Amino acid sequence: MIRHLSARGFTLMEMIVVLLISSMAVMLGFQSLMQWQQAEATFSRIGNETEANTLTAAWWRSSMRGLMPVEKTPFWGNASSLSGFTNNPIFSTAGAMTPIHWQVLENTEGNGMRLVLKENNRIHNLPIDGGATAQFAYMDRDGGIHPQWPPKVLGEAPTQLPQAIRLNIRYSNGEERSWAAHVIGPLNPYYRVFSIEEDFE
Which residues does 161 contact at the CB level (< 8 Å), separation at least 6? Predict the structure, then answer.
């Protein structure tokens, strides 16, 4: 006697359940992928902003540390800009006495601040990402902080260069930071009492 074995397949209901489970798995996978891409983009943006801010701060500090007093063109500064000479230029020959002008401006898009450096008639925009306001401040030899230089003080005349310069930044999230740079060189021009010819006569 020959038995006929009938091959049993999936019922319609079983196929619908399998398709539903598969579609849910695919949907969850796409959702996780989208979340991962958003997180990666956020971390990348934060990393780029941090890197840009770090580079801008390093360049500004280097420029301020190299400030040199010049008799005929003295240093001056206020809360939004400053001008002088540095031997640590950012984009010019290192060690050369270079005129500089730093200014704090709002971005044209309205999303933060930027430092504008004018060096040897070349203009460079350096970002301060996330910054809502930024102001310069100047420290004298006694540690006093002034909103401008030379300061409006009575008594002893101030040095041509401040002892240190600070850039105060208030970010849009309420956080505050300061970039500070101590002037390394002399604060006043060096005056030679005798010339070389007079010394040997």
Answer: 67, 68, 69, 75, 84, 183, 185, 186, 187, 188
